[in-house]
Structure formats: structure tokens, C-alpha cells
Amino acid sequence: MNTLVEKLKSTVRDTAATDIRAAFAADPARFSRYSLTLGDFLFDYSKCAVNEAVLAGLEALAKEAGVEAKRDAMFSGAVINITEERAVLHTALRNRANTPVLVAGRDVMPDVNAVLDAMGAFSDDIRSGRLTGATGRKITDVVNIGIGGSDLGPVMATLALAPYHDGPRLHFVSNIDGAHIADTLKLVEAETTLFIVASKTFTTIETMTNAETARKFVVGALGEAAVGHHFCAVSTALDKVAAFGIDEARVFGFWDWVGGRYSIWSAIGLPLMIAIGKEDFADFLAGGHAIDTHFREAPVRENIPMLLGLLGFYHRNVLGYPSRAILPYDQRLSRFPAYLQQLDMESNGKSVTMDSKPVEGQTGPVVWGEPGTNGQHAFYQLIHQGTTIIPAEFMIAANGHEKELRHQHELLISNCLAQSEALMKGRTLTEAKAQLLSKGMDPAKADRIAPHRVFPGNRPSVTMVYDSLTPFALGRLIALYEHRVFVEGALFDINSFDQWGVELGKELATGLLPVVEGKESAAGHDSSTAGLVAALLKAAR
Ligand code: F6P
Asked: Where is the active site (predicted)?
């Protein structure tokens, strides 16, 4: 692997691959050469520092890392999450072909379909008012209590699909900070609210504590007997749910082969289904399935998730870029960067190989972003003229949902395309100076000012275009990124499906609670921690 990476570094130097601007000037067919379509989805990577030699090198990397074989192992239900000894089969949840998917020799599709049917019936009943609160009033508000993968997916997708939202209002509570649930409870009435307690493990302290607070809210307003009418749960830990007192008929299960950050397709998607209805939810699943089929069947050079993953590896390990920006020109995708932070950074923020050795080279980059055009007025300055190169990933719909505001959509498109063009082309010193002189500036001043107005250019970006942000398009986009994370993980040779890094914080917080409560001494903790505890206890009212 290392030899191939080193070889690619020489290829980049020898072929001046990073001079993207020159490559465009030399090749009028560059866009068609380095873009792909899948239905209405267009993936343009022509503004990256690639050429035939670089792509051949990346293909060789994929081959040496066995990416295609690893992909096939994932889809076949092999135990690829080796530290937790689990299969990784979120793809089965959106397997609209309904072909058998075997885990330890047993087809999981009947169970998957049964839960989907149960979710469909329940969400129909809530949406239609057949299922009511304890006093017979229709449910107008649904509060999802969950965190991480049990929150970010439903939050992001509900916002993304706002034009399809015709069910009850949705609210999301995740943070252990009491402010989150307190502010939410002010917006709802107990009589007309359904709480979904969403937790894969049903042990997560944030979710369990917020669920207890919600339960007190319901009991305080309507009495203990009302709890059954106002709660339902989503979990893999059915025994723990029963102990919380939620009726079995209101529990929607999933399985240990669904990772938290890959669980939007499972019963964790229940709030989304209640919002948009089971038919639109099925379209969302179909979008994910379309990418699965493409990922499994297309050869590497025609395979969008494969290329996106290879480009990610290239940026990180060959060109040395430490982060990537996710820049949706789609206000309703405003939580997509946060969603991808968990998907990508919790999956690929690792340093140990599948053979339990330290990784050589770099693993996942820092993932961050905000929707355009807002980001343009905040951090784009650094992307254009800073000393760090940040590959950008733009996404834009050809059509907004607001037909009457077409002009605003045209402005959105022109801004999106202008940014990627500016990043690639930049502005040379000569161009900057000529522009100043043409405005009548005196030459001495133009000499002084021009360097500040130089843009280095050659800054890489990919652009993704889709017809409009439908449930299908959203499902496709999420699945595309899931598989890109998979491809990068396969190239890094790490396990993308565990998250031990998160567990340490959980353990330490549990240990510190009695100290913060003043029940135990801080002795044994470092002096900073002890000092901070003392200051906080002194100030506590
Ligand atoms: O943040 C760590 C994590 O384990 C995530 O992977 C997961 O999505 C989240 O906590 C919530 O876990 P659970 O669904 O079990 O409450």
C-alpha cells in the first residue's frame, strides 16, 4: 500500500496533476471525462487534481486494498465489525429487491419487513388520529428522545424533507443539558404529545435521563396510567425497554448488525416516517437501495461511491489535506454536515488496523461544513486564500421546491457554481494587477494591493447535482456517503464500524458524577479536574 501511495505522490509531481487550471485549459472534454451520472444524479469530479495516471494509481490502490472484495463481504453478511463481532447490514434495511440477506445462515428480510410494516401501521394510526393520547385527543406533536445515531439522522432528514412533512410536528431532544428538554416541553401539551425513546442500547445516559424527565412531565399532567398512551420506543434491547414500562406493541426493534450512525433506515427512522408517511419513507429507502445496487455493480472507474472514497483517500494520504468541507447549496440540508460528521468521523477516526497494528499514514479527515450561501459570508475566505487546502464538496438541486421563487434558486445555483469555479481558477498576480489598473488605480498602489487580491486557485472540489431534494434523492445521498466512508475505511484498513473512542468519555463521566454531586472527593483526579470541580461546586446554587 505504502509503495503505491509513494508511487502516486511521484505521479502527481511528474504529471503536474495539481495544476487543475492548466488541465482544464488543455482538455475541453475534461468535464465529460471526469463526471458520472446515475439517473438524475450528476457527480462532477473534474475540478479535482486527477488525470489518467492518478486515476490508474487510485484504482491500483483499491485493488491492493481489496475494496471490492470487502464490499462484497459487507453485503453478504460477513462479520466485518471484528471488534464487536457483528455483521454490518444497514443495506438490508433498504433492500427493496427483498432478496434474501443471510446473517449466520438466517434470512433477515422477513424480520426487516415485519418491523417496517409495524412502523407503517403505527405511523398511519398516529397521523390519522386513530391512535390518540390518554384523553382521546389527536397527537399533534412527536418528541424524539435520542442522541448520536438515534437523533442526527431523523433530525437531518426531517428538515431535509420539510416539503413532504404532513404529519404531526416533530421535536428532537438529545442533549443531557436540561435546557434542551425544558425548552422543548414548553412547546408541547402532554395530552397531545407522543414521546419516542430512541436508543439502540437503551442505556445511553442522555436518552434515559431525558426519557425520565419526559415521563415525569406526562405523569404530572395526566397520571401514571397515561404513560402507555404517550410513549413508544425504538431499540435493539427489548428487555430494557420492557423494564422502562413501554408496552410491547409500541416497541420497534432493530438488530446489532445496524450501527447507530447507519440506523436512519431502521426503526430509528420512525419519527421521519410519522412526519412524511410510509409511502415517502419507502421512496427514501429506495434511494438508498439504488446506490447499493450501483455500488455493488459498477466498475471502479464508473462507481460514484468508490470514486468519492478514492478521492477522499487521495486528498488525505497523497496530497496531505487534513479536512474536507461539506457545502450543500440547499438550506434544508443544513444538518447534513453534522450528520456526516458522525457518519465519517465516528467511523474512520481510528488508528489501529484490522490486524491490530498502528496504522501507517492518515485515517479520516476532519469533516465540517455549513450550507451555502451562508458559509460564503463566514469561512470561505480561508478556503479561497488561507494557507490550508480544503477539498470542498458542493451539492445543489436543479430545482427548488419553491417554484414561485425560481429566481432565488437561480441565484443559489450561480453562487454554488461561482465558488467551485473560483476555487479552481483562482486569480493570478498579473490578473489582479490588471484589474486594479483597469479601475484607474495608480501603478505603485496596484503593486502593493494586488498580492492581497491573488487567489492561488487549483483548490479541489466535487459537485453533486440532483433534480430536487425528494425522499429518493435524500436516501441516495446518504447511502452514497455511507459507502464513501466504507471505501475509505477499507483503504485505511481499519474497522469503520466500532466506536471505542466514544466509550472512554462515557466511562469517565460516570466516574465523575459522584464527585460533581459532592458525594465523593476529587482526590485521585488530576489537579486541573479537581480544581475545576472545586470551582463549580463553590459556585453551585
Ligand atoms: O456516541 C456514541 C454512540 O454509541 C453512537 O454510536 C450512537 O449512535 C449513540 O451513542 C447513541 O447510542 P444509543 O442509540 O445506544 O443510545
From this structure: 346, 377, 506
